[in-house]
Structures are given as C-alpha cells and as structure tokens.
Automatic annotation (TrEMBL):
Domain NERD positions: 24-141
Protein known as: NERD domain-containing protein
Lineage of the organism: Eukaryota, Viridiplantae, Streptophyta, Embryophyta, Tracheophyta
PANTHER family according to UniProt: SI:ZFOS-911D5.4
Alphabetized InterPro entries for the sequence: NERD
Domain of life, per lineage: Eukaryota
One Pfam family recorded for the sequence: NERD
C-alpha cells in the first residue's frame, strides 16, 4: 500500500528533521531509507520555496517524493493535543499544555494548493505532466497528537496512530516494500520527462541548509559572514549567485581543536545537476568566523561558528 510505503519507509527515517524541533535545530538519523528510495528510482526534495504568481510570494513545500509514476507533495504538521475535523473541513485543536483551542484551515486544501503551485511552476519551466501525476499527503507525527473521531480524517491524512504502526523495523522489510511500491495503477512517464523533472526540482528555489555536527540541520536563509576582515575577504565569493555548497574541514591533526579551518566550496553549475571535483575552491580562515543565519519560521538571526558546521548548502 502506498501510504505504508510513504510513512514507514521514507518519513520515519529520513525526515525526522521536520518532526521534532528544538530551537529551530532538527535532529536527523542516518538515512538508509533515502538510499533505498533512490535505488528504486525515487528522489526526495526537502524545503522547496516555489514562486506563487497569485500571491507574489513563495509557497513553502515541506517535501516532494518523485518517481517515474507519481509525485507526492507532503505537508508535515507538528500538531499536539486533541484534534478533530469540523463540518466545514477545518480542524479544531485543543492543547492541554496551553489550555486553549485553535481553528486551523483544512491542511488537505492547503497541500493541494501547494501541489497546484508546484505544477504551474513546472509547466512554466517546460514540463507538462499527465493528469493525476501529483497526489497529496498530510503527516501528523507528533506523539502528543490525539485524533478525535479518526474516521473523520480524509484518507490523505496520516494520523500519529497510523504512522506509529507503519514504522519499519528492518532494512529487508524496507527493501521488500520498495520492490512492490509502484507496480500497479499509474503508468511511467517518459524517461526524458522524468529526468527533466528531477533536474528542474533539483534547481528549484529552496531553503538554505546548515549541517551541524551531531547530525543536526537548520533550514532557513544565509545572511552573511562575521569575523576578522581578512577572513571575510577570503570568503567574499561565497554567495548564492556563485556557490552551491560549502564544506568545513579541520586543519589540525590528532583531534586537537584547530585555530584555522579549511573551507571548500563549489562554483554553481546551472548546466547540469552534478558538480565536478575540479570546481572545488579552497580557502583557510579562523575557526571563530561565524555565519549569520535566519532559521525558517523564526524572526531571529542566529550565529553559528564555522567550527560547529559540517557544511552549508545555498539555494539558487
């Protein structure tokens, strides 16, 4: 069943980053499921920010899973407390901790709109996909979520109770699930269209991403570097119009705390999805040099020392 594949295989392992947040920093497990998903012809795109001509702003999309047969737009709602569906399709959420209730717009309608914006964006970039290629899911992964009248939730919604029962326990189970995922129903799109689709999504606007030590990630927007003038000058070419990825390496040996760091970065290549090793550029700066970064859904700009980072990815 597609819902089981979606929740148990991909969501549980790879995208815990959306589930449990702590001061805008997200813990991430090593992703065996991502490798399996890629092995069976699928790709996952996280944190897209697609231009929406109707609002003049960007539509945030948590996650898109793409195969040759379908694309699933996924919205992750980290809701806690008691949640029920009202007659008009909106949701009512009551939190014991906050002792108050709130009404939420229908997440399914919101996710369908996200899919519509994404489809229009793809058409603008020359990709015409067959009708019904896109589908939507809403994941409710918070263990403090409690559904009232779970049978009232649409089939597109995966409640926490459903999600918890679909957690994969072994790699061989994951692999078996993948082998039978896309055999029936929809037909494969043309290989050329599939390749073009993946290229466009890989170059689509998305949130910048910091990878911190300890498998922690932050999604948001890179602002600038702070530090000694000579270090800032050495990093002057690191801006999103030129650089796609930056990697931090220690310069000291035997695990001693370094006074300097090697920073490798790649020139952005708009012609193809990959970047060759010859395009890496190396500079050396002080480990105290900082990155100013504004996390997603936060009004505060945070400072991260380069010594605490593993890498930074910049959206085009």
């Amino acid at each position: 069943m597609w819902v089981e594949i979606l929740c148990g295989l991909v969501i549980y392992r790879l995208f815990r980053r959306f589930f449990f947040r702590d001061d805008d920093i997200m813990d991430v497990e090593t992703s065996d499921s991502n490798a399996l998903f890629a092995l069976h012809g699928g790709k996952a795109y996280v944190g897209l920010r697609i231009p929406d001509p109707d609002t003049g702003s960007r539509q945030n999309i948590d996650l898109v899973l793409v195969t040759s047969r379908e694309a699933v737009v996924i919205s992750v709602k980290n809701l806690s407390g008691f949640v029920s569906v009202d007659a008009d399709g909106s949701w009512s959420c009551f939190s014991d901790r906050k002792h108050k209730s709130q009404n939420l717009p229908n997440p399914i309608v919101e996710t369908r709109r996200e899919a519509s914006v994404l489809e229009a964006y793809l058409e603008q970039r020359g990709i015409a996909l067959p009708e019904g290629y896109f589908s939507c899911k809403v994941i409710l992964p918070n263990p403090k979520f409690c559904a009232i009248g779970s049978n009232q939730f649409p089939s597109e919604v995966i409640t926490y109770e459903q999600w918890a029962h679909l957690k994969p326990e072994a790699k061989n189970v994951l692999s078996d699930w993948f082998k039978g995922t896309f055999r029936g129903g929809k037909k494969d799109i043309q290989e050329s269209i599939h390749q073009q689709l993946n290229f466009v999504l890989s170059t689509a606007p998305m949130w910048d991403r910091l990878e911190l030590k300890g498998n922690k990630y932050v999604l948001g927007e890179f602002m600038e570097f702070k530090g000694k003038q000579e270090d800032i000058q050495a990093l002057r070419n690191v801006r999103r119009s030129k650089v796609g990825r930056l990697v931090i390496q220690k310069t000291s040996m035997f695990g001693l705390a370094p006074s300097n760091l090697q920073v490798l970065y790649t020139h952005r290549d708009y012609r193809s999805e990959g970047v060759s090793a010859s395009e890496w550029v190396e500079v050396t700066v002080r480990s105290s040099t900082e990155i100013l970064f504004q996390p997603q859904n936060s009004s505060k700009v945070r400072k991260f020392k380069l010594s605490s980072l593993v890498s930074m990815s910049l959206s085009a």
